[in-house]
Design a protein that fits this description.
The complex is a heterotrimer.
Chain A lengths: L8 H24 L2 H10 L3 H16 L1 H6 L1 H29 L6 H5 L1 H5 L8 H26 L14 H28 L6 H11 L2 H25 L7 H13 L11 H7 L6 H5 L1 H4 L8 H9 L5 H5 L6 H5 L6 H12 L23 E4 L8 H13 L4 E3 L10 H5 L3 H17 L4 E4 L2 H9 L7 E4 H10 L11 E4 L13 H10 L1 E3 L22 H16 L5 E4 L2 H8 L6 E3 H8 L2
Chain B lengths: L1 E3 L2 E4 L3 H12 L4 E4 L14 E2 L4 E2 H15 L2 E3 L4 E4 L3 E4 L4 E3 L2 E4 L4 E2 L16 E3 H10 L12 E8 L15 H15 L4 E6 L9 H10 L4 E4 L2 E6 L5 E7 L4 E7 L1 E6 L1 E2 L3 H9 L26 E3 L9 H19 L2
Parallel strand pairs in B: 1-9, 2-3, 2-10, 3-6, 10-21, 12-19, 13-14, 13-19, 14-15
Antiparallel strand pairs in B: 4-5, 7-8, 8-9, 11-20, 16-17, 17-18
Helix pairs in contact in B: 1-2, 1-7, 3-4, 4-5
Chain C lengths: L23 H9 L11 H5 L1 H5 L4 H9 L6 H5 L7 H5 L6 H12 L3
Classes of the chains: A mainly alpha, B alpha/beta, C mainly alpha.
Chain lengths: 595, 337, 111
């Protein structure tokens, strides 16, 4: 068989260009990986992690299980395009082997097999024809859904669809034409030469019956040209568009299973995460800034997009609650919060060396105790929580040193959230030394913001760090305090930093159910809403915060509970502003029910 | 039960009483509806009035006497559940058909517990201006332990000019009340020290600036420009307060025996219900809008509904009473067509 | 502005010369954050300030100076801020104080 036809050139050029660019990109990213990451790759490459990755790649890159779980039509759309196209390639490959044996077939020979084979083939394997048409139909249905999604995203199961940049639009337009054109080309070919499956074959017969054969043969080449051009066009734009995710998700899954992670300092691995984003837009629906305030263009999908194309504005980077809800639903599993933080770090003001030199010699701390209690800055504005904790410590007979009652250095996380990680380290160092100096064995804090940075960034070896809900749960279990339950129902609001941030979901619930009736709202635990008061957002104003808080309160009260319980001074303050119902910290509930 | 009258006056505070008196004296029929079991409204909680130290009970008595002579029909303990310009329905089921309504429903006191950082309801010796008036009534100012406070801090603007508690407006009377109360404390406890924490001193009325001067010169009341940010309990029921002394631009801490919070005026939630039922316009603060601030201050956007007193904005007792007279005249003019 | 040691030296000129001071940067800041003009100078921010308890840092004074066109040394002073956010929680005018700190530092730069 001769595989020479000028119409294949656009495809050949496009495909070659795409492969060159993609390989070059990956090569650069791999070369730039820091040493530790390279070590991790070496360690992981011949381990079970690799095998597991193959399974994950099949599950997520082809089947898109996570998107299916989110929405059936959306999952089907992604799956039909990815799996369908993949199967077309696989079955196409088998087809050539079946028909031609082991003889060499160039790439474009595989792709345009029907064109080259139709005139010469005498017998057809119906099962291959059937499979090829079947998968083509699947892909076409996916394209159809993609069209619908552009017109009405709700029909496909999401409220909002992503707004795209020019390269995306161009690549998408080519992509949309690829499969309808393939259908037409193959149909016309079948109408002239016969063959084809239930789709192209029958359509071909229909064409042959109603259209003059003259017309059909004059249409043959233009259709194949168009098909080739649309393929080539798509490939040309693909590395610069969101479709880069098609390939990038594969190395990402491997690298992630080899335990590579983004850090607070930007590094080469981030590029894999950034370009693996398919801009599916699932994160937009999760974002309360969008849902409640109607703020567009700041969600993770846009953040990654703008970052990738070097058009990220500070206002976009800083307009995020960092609640982690998007990360929770991201089908690609991108570490969105870490990427945002490392980006803020690049955009920060470079602090001077002398910054926070005033920490030297300010430590006038006194007191002692086995347990250190760090109330946290916010807790000083909610004295009830502080007093409740004092009462609980007393009831438990605990030997407590109050770490921040007389002026204290902030835990550092609020500053970190602005991207000034380096300056925050000075605070961390100060507090680490303070805790060590007092020889505490347990550190209890009332603030999930402090709690998170203590567990993630502090080096507190030998010191057990507990959030006060964990501490209360432990002294309840060991019987050091007892409660007389009240006949009142509470719905628990999971603070972002404590829940999604640190994975503490059960202890708060355990404590509440020992003190009163615990009720749940539908969006709880990993899917809990953010109160809106987040210290991570530097853009929205207080009215917008309050609007978010009102929507959260409304949702919480749908549970039918009389009161709202939470475990964060900031959440408590923010939610209190939005309702006249009582919003209480768990420590307050417990201290009121002590026996 | 269905009653008929010319004008229904809702609210038996000073404005309501005065309006009812005026209406009856002019010969029209009127019903005064009051939620409480007694008349007098918020004024009953007050000991003496600024700037003249007139006893508030004298004012109430005078008004009640006038009321008695005017033969006003008073419905006490009656909560209004529905109102329009021609009908007033009470919680008891009684319906009063009328030709005009005067709203004199007043204000609510800001709940100081919402400003948790000041510790009202948490710490022993944090009280409100209303609690202090109650102490004046009993004749002794004392901390919870029974001792006379030696150092007292008075904080202005609690629940006023504070977006954090959705109270943007100025409650108008707290500044002068704080000056008056500072003087009264000094009169009763000459050895005590009183510190007023203010943001702006709004001495807008006759004799107010003079009273301010008296407090400064004659009574040596200290005025510190800065809002207290936090209070914390010290041993023996004392309190430590933190503020910025903005005039010296330095943080200030002070321990006191008593902290008095000058609670502001908050628009009652019922205003929104009235507005919903009648189409009355509300201000962003939740108080009812007058039709015109200058020429038709006692008229509203709904013909037949008139307003008197603090239902439209924080006001002094004197202003509320004069407005009541105006409102009753406007209502009379309206029903006479 | 010839005197470098801003802040607490006694030799700096005391007068804020509104005829000479250049408000360009100040206006730039206020354009992005108009709510800063709403400050009533109550001092709640400074009173609750974690850094203000440990140093002479005075947030209210710093942003007021900026609004008067007095920029010298402000960057250094604002660098003392730990960005803990207590001031925002107490501001009766709902000023986004953390943004104010970042914005002023970014606009003025270190001088």
């Amino acid at each position: 068989m001769i595989y020479l036809a000028p119409f294949t050139y656009p495809f050949i050029i496009g495909a070659a260009f795409m492969f060159l660019i993609v390989v070059w990109k990956y090569a650069m990213w791999f070369i730039d990986l820091p040493k530790e990451d390279v070590q991790k790759i070496k360690k992981g490459i011949f381990s079970k992690a690799t095998l597991y990755s193959v399974w994950e790649i099949f599950r997520e890159s082809l089947l898109h299980v996570r998107i299916f779980k989110r929405s059936l039509p959306l999952g089907y759309m992604h799956c039909s395009l990815a799996l369908g196209w993949f199967m077309l390639i696989v079955v196409g490959w088998i087809e050539t082997i079946v028909y031609l044996g082991n003889s060499f077939v160039p790439l474009y020979g595989h792709v345009f097999f029907r064109f080259f084979a139709a005139p010469v083939l005498t017998e057809h394997f119906w099962i291959l024809d059937f499979l090829m048409d079947f998968f083509l139909l699947i892909v076409l249905s996916g394209v159809f859904l993609a069209w619908i999604k552009r017109f009405s995203s709700r029909l496909v199961g999401i409220r909002r669809t992503t707004k795209h940049v020019l390269t995306d639009r161009l690549a998408m337009s080519f992509l949309w034409f690829v499969f309808p054109l393939r259908l037409l080309s193959e149909t016309v070919t079948a109408s002239i030469y016969g063959g084809g499956g239930f789709l192209t074959g029958s359509l071909g017969e229909l064409f042959a019956a109603f259209l003059p054969s003259q017309l059909l043969s004059s249409l043959l080449m233009p259709f194949w040209w168009c098909y080739s051009i649309s393929l080539g066009g798509f490939f040309c734009f693909m590395p610069f568009s969101r479709y880069m995710h098609i390939f990038t998700e594969i190395p990402l899954i491997l690298l992630r299973n080899w335990t590579l992670r983004p850090t607070l300092d930007e590094k080469s691995y981030d590029k894999f995460e950034i370009q693996a984003c398919s801009r599916c837009g699932i994160c937009i629906d999760e974002c309360q800034l969008q849902k409640v305030l109607g703020i567009e263009n700041v969600q993770s999908v846009y953040f990654l997009r703008d970052k990738r194309y070097h058009m990220l504005r500070l206002a976009t980077a800083q307009n995020c609650l960092m609640c982690g809800r998007c990360q929770q639903v991201c089908p690609v599993g991108i570490n969105l919060n870490t990427l945002r933080l490392s980006t803020r770090a690049i955009m920060r003001n470079i602090p001077s060396e002398q910054r926070y030199n005033y920490f030297n010699g300010i430590d006038r701390s006194c007191g002692e105790g086995r347990v250190g209690y760090f109330a946290g800055c916010m807790t000083h504005l909610t004295p009830k929580i502080k007093i409740s904790m004092e009462k609980i410590f007393k009831a438990a007979g605990e030997d407590v040193w109050y770490a921040d009652s007389e002026g204290s250095v902030c835990c550092g996380r609020p500053l970190m959230l602005s991207g000034e990680t380096d300056a925050a380290r000075k605070m961390i160092k100060f507090n680490e030394e303070l805790f060590r100096k007092h020889k505490i064995t347990t550190l209890v804090t009332s603030c999930p913001i402090c709690f998170r940075v203590f567990t993630e960034q502090y080096n507190l070896e030998g010191i057990t760090v507990l959030h006060h809900t964990q501490y209360i749960a432990s002294i309840l279990r060991s019987g050091r305090i007892a409660l007389s339950p009240e006949e009142c129902s509470y719905v628990y609001h999971d603070p972002c930093e404590l829940g999604r941030g640190c994975g503490v979901y059960d202890e708060p619930r355990e404590v509440i159910s020992r003190a009163a009736n615990l009720m749940e709202c539908s969006q709880n635990r990993e899917h809990a809403l953010c109160c809106g008061g987040s210290l991570s957002n530097f853009v929205i104003d207080d009215f917008q915060q309050q609007k978010i808080a009102s929507s959260v309160v409304e949702h919480l009260l749908l549970s039918g509970a009389e009161r709202i319980a939470t475990a964060c001074p900031l959440c408590r303050k923010t939610l209190s502003r939005a309702t006249e119902r009582r919003v209480m910290d768990i420590a307050e509930i417990v201290s009121e029910r002590l026996t | 039960m269905i009653m008929q009258t010319d004008v229904v006056v809702v609210g038996g505070g000073v404005a309501g009483i005065k309006a009812a008196c005026e209406l009856c004296q002019a010969g029209s029929k009127c019903v005064l509806v009051e939620r409480d079991s007694v008349l007098g409204g918020k004024l009953r909680g007050w000991h003496k009035l600024f700037p003249s130290f007139t006893s508030s009970s004298d004012v109430i008595e005078e008004l009640l006497n006038e009321l008695k002579q005017s033969n006003v029909e008073c419905l006490l303990g009656s909560e209004v559940v529905y109102i329009s310009s021609t009908l007033c329905r009470l919680a008891s089921g009684t319906e009063i058909q009328c030709r005009a309504v005067i709203l004199a429903t007043g204000y609510n006191l800001f709940d100081a517990r919402i400003k948790e950082e000041y510790g009202y309801g948490i710490y022993d010796n944090v009280i409100t201006s209303v609690d202090l008036e109650r102490m004046f009534h009993t004749g002794t100012i004392s901390t919870l332990s029974g001792a006379a406070p030696e150092k007292v801090a008075i904080l202005h603007c609690v629940g006023s000019r504070d977006e954090k508690v959705c109270q943007r407006h100025c409650s108008k009377v707290c500044c002068i009340t704080a000056v008056k109360q500072a003087i009264e404390i000094k009169k009763m406890l000459p050895n005590s020290e009183v510190f007023n924490f203010y943001m702006d001193m709004r001495m807008f009325g006759p004799g107010y600036e003079e009273l301010y001067l008296t407090a400064q010169k004659q009574y040596n009341v200290h005025f510190i420009r800065g809002r207290i940010s936090e209070a914390a309990q010290l041993p023996k029921g004392r309190l430590q307060i933190k503020a910025e002394d903005t005039l010296t631009a330095r943080p200030l801490i002070m321990s006191v025996d008593m902290l008095v919070l000058m609670v502001g005026m908050k628009a009652p939630k019922q205003n929104a219900l009235f507005a919903l039922a009648t189409g009355l316009e509300l201000q962003p603060s939740g108080f009812i809008s007058s039709k015109d601030l200058f020429l038709e201050a006692v008229l509203t956007s709904v013909p037949g509904i008139f307003v008197a007193g603090t239902v439209t904005a924080p006001k002094t007792i004197g202003e509320s009473i004069s407005e009541a007279t105006m409102a009753s005249r406007a209502a009379l003019k309206f029903i006479e067509g | 502005m010839a005197v470098k040691n801003f802040g607490f030296s006694i030799s700096r000129p005391r007068t804020i010369d509104m005829d000479k001071n250049n408000l360009r940067k100040s206006n730039e800041i206020l354009r992005e954050l108009p709510e800063l003009q709403a400050c009533i100078g109550c001092g709640s921010c400074t009173a609750s300030c974690s850094a203000g308890l440990l140093t002479q840092f005075n947030f209210r004074k710093m942003h007021t100076l900026v609004r008067r066109g007095e920029y010298e040394g402000v960057y250094k002073e604002l660098s003392k801020c730990m960005l803990c956010g207590k001031c925002r929680m107490v501001c009766p005018r709902n000023i986004n104080t953390r943004k104010v700190v970042l914005l002023i530092k970014r606009t003025l730069g270190d001088f």
